[in-house]
Write a structure and sequence with these properties.
By secondary structure, the chain is of the alpha+beta class. The protein has 7 helices and 7 strands, in the order ααααββββααβββα. α1 crosses α2. The radius of gyration is 21 Å and the shape is globular. The relative contact order is 0.16.
């Protein structure tokens, strides 16, 4: 690995990684021999299908549509409970998220994102672009209970969201690739 790759992987500054490697007698600055791509490629994740969501306890709660003003709206009133939501296109889930403030409030911000809400702005633009070509993006939700582990609280919704992101290929989730 190069010094830059090591620094990135460890989440440290390049200069610090460079100094540690130099002090350890490593050949800092030399280019590593490239490894064949097949040896470093991660196994691909399977897609998450709507049928998997439904089997896991999710339910259909609405669909995204474009208003006459070209704004995102949902075709019905949403539950206000805390939960996990998923956006699906052609029976394949493309995005999952957690609504810690409640589903209705969280999804409201996708339709009306604030200037500093990077994720909401990004997903808003993606959904609008998709709705122009594909008239239906469905919304599914689940409301898992919070749990306890060794006397400590465990947030059920946050854990479910992270589990789905780690296991499945979700093209709109940036964390799904890592």
């Amino acid at each position: 690995m190069s010094t830059a790759e090591i620094a990135r992987a460890l989440g440290i500054r390049y200069q610090f990684a460079y100094g540690v490697l130099r002090n350890a007698g490593s050949n800092v600055g030399e280019r590593p021999t490239p490894t064949p791509v097949a040896a470093t490629a991660k196994p691909s994740k399977p897609p998450l299908l709507v049928s998997d969501l439904l089997a896991g306890g999710f339910g259909h709660v609405g669909s995204w549509i474009l208003s006459a003003e070209h704004r995102l709206v949902i075709d019905r009133e949403l539950p206000k409970a805390v939960g996990v939501y998923a956006f699906a296109k052609n029976d394949v889930v493309v995005y999952v998220g957690v609504a810690t403030m409640g589903l209705a409030k969280r999804l409201y911000f996708y339709g009306r994102p604030g200037a500093t809400q990077r994720t909401s702005l990004r997903i808003n633009a993606i959904i609008i672009g998709e709705l122009v070509a594909h008239p239906n993006i469905d919304i599914y939700a689940a409301f898992p209970p919070d749990l306890e582990w060794n006397g400590l609280p465990v947030h059920g919704s946050a854990g479910l969201e992270l589990g789905l992101i780690k296991k499945y290929a979700l093209p709109w989730n940036m964390r799904s690739a890592g």
